[in-house]
Amino acid sequence: MSPTLSCTTLRRLDIQGFDEIPVEQLARVAPWLRLTFGLCAALATAGTVLASPVLLWLLVPLALAGAVSPVHPFDLLYNHGLRHLTGTPALPRRGAPSRFACGVGAVWLAVTAWMFQSGATVAGYALGTLLSATAILVSTTDICLPSMVFRVLSRWHPAPDRAKEVAS
Description:
It is built from 9 helices and no strands. Helix 3 runs antiparallel to helix 7 (121-141) and helix 6 (96-117) packs across helix 8. It is an all-alpha fold.
């Protein structure tokens, strides 16, 4: 039995920039697309809880790499390791909305790290908590707020037939 996607999940993944990936292929890797965001959320949360500018600064180049490349460094952990254990296919390349989200994350991480580093601990905790919550949201529900902003700014409209692929 092949995995399936709900219309809601498909819409959320399309918003992230996976709208060019065939639904059947996307269904096989959909849960694993959350891995990168989950790892980012865990590390950003740890950096915030520990008020560690060092940990947050270490995440900035990873987020920047995710912004400029269609393959996030954490996707490589899955593509070159974990997928061989799970018997699942490689993750598809990330589209512009997901890369935009990584760019937003890089800036957000840098500002949060700078807040902790400069002694503005309350601002650091506030920014870090919001960043962690945003990353946790996408890693648990596929709702990516920065991708939604990208889609609004780009005036994107989903393909009308795409949801029919799930329904059939």
